[in-house]
Specification:
This protein has 100 residues and is mainly alpha-helical. It is 72% helix and 0% strand. The protein has one domain (4-98). The model has no long low-confidence stretch (mean pLDDT 83). It comes from Roseivirga echinicomitans. This is Anti-sigma factor.
Length: 100
């Protein structure tokens, strides 16, 4: 299990690798993984602050974040709408994976 410091170092390193020297988003797949950590409230305060600053200043980063956030919100909404129709073990697995 990683300590918060190790996680923060990993987050900063991975985040930096998502961007070229000019600050443009070049690794959308890796950035998507980082978005999931933020949406799942797994990022520490410092990492989240770095992330939030970037999505405020980078249109492409913000667009990717908004898309991922919408997907997660849509899944949550569908789970609530179809609660009685989904097998309990499947619903619990999905809820756990999206932090619900």
């Amino acid at each position: 299990m990683k300590t918060m410091s190790e996680f923060s170092d990993w987050f900063k390193s991975s985040f930096k690798e998502c961007y070229c020297d000019r600050g443009n988003l070049v690794d959308e797949k890796r950035f998507s993984e980082i978005i999931q950590l933020v949406l799942d409230n797994e990022a520490d305060e410092e990492s989240r602050a770095i992330f939030e600053e970037k999505i405020r200043t980078c249109v492409k980063s913000n667009g990717n974040y908004e898309r991922e956030k919408c997907v997660q919100e849509s899944i949550k909404q569908k789970l609530c709408e179809h609660k009685q129709e989904i097998p309990e073990d499947l619903a619990n697995t999905i809820k756990k994976s999206i932090g619900l």
